[in-house]
Recover the amino acids of this structure.
């Protein structure tokens, strides 16, 4: 008779632990197939039938539609090169080489992937609009106030995320920790 309460306690502890770890993984992560490259997170298999169950759960929780592997790749950054959380009240420089792609976009969003700025303002920067510099490649300033040159407004939101989407890119199938991506450097912060 003593065995039953102990068994029920063990099952309860196991269930709470398992459900808690699953909620933590789905709530903060993007699944087991996530690849970290500097501040950027990539989940190349998210839009494929081979996506792991956690990546599928994250997609369902966020209500997003991942890019299929043949269409491209989305990279998400929640931190700068130093590991500090991105803050839309600060000024950042996104500079360096962007992997080869037919087209790419850089978007500033909130943590829930809603646009960081109101409709009618620039919400995305594209590869067709960028003014290039030969020695740097891509050089975009993300800031709450307007800047000369390649400027993407951050809206001054505290919970900033940057999403770099590469469309029709060979990197989608060959991405690795050695892939070169633009650096995100904090320039100033109030």
């Amino acid at each position: 008779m003593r065995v039953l309460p102990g068994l029920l306690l063990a099952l309860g502890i196991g269930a709470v632990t398992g459900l808690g770890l699953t909620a933590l993984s789905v709530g903060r992560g993007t699944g087991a197939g996530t690849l970290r490259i500097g501040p950027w997170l990539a989940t190349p298999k998210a839009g494929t039938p081979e996506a792991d169950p956690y990546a599928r759960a994250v997609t369902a929780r966020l209500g997003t539609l991942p890019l299929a592997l043949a269409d491209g790749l989305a990279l998400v950054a929640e931190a700068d090169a130093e590991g500090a959380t991105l803050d839309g009240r600060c000024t950042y420089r996104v500079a360096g080489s962007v992997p080869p792609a037919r087209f790419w976009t850089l978007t500033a969003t909130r943590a829930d992937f809603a646009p960081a700025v109101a409709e009618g303002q620039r919400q995305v920067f594209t590869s067709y609009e960028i003014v290039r510099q030969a020695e740097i490649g891509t050089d975009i300033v993300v800031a709450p106030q307007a800047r000369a040159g390649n400027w993407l407004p951050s809206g001054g939101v505290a919970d900033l995320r940057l999403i770099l989407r590469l469309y029709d890119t060979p990197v989608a199938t060959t991405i690795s920790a050695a892939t070169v991506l633009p650096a995100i450097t904090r320039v100033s912060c109030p």
Residues 31-188 form a domain with the Jelly Rolls fold (CATH 2.60.120.600). The chain has a mean pLDDT of 80. The CA atoms of residues 110 and 160 lie 5 Å apart. The beta strands are 35-37, 40-42, 72-77, 91-96, 103-110, 124-126, 138-143, 151-153, 160-167, 183-188.
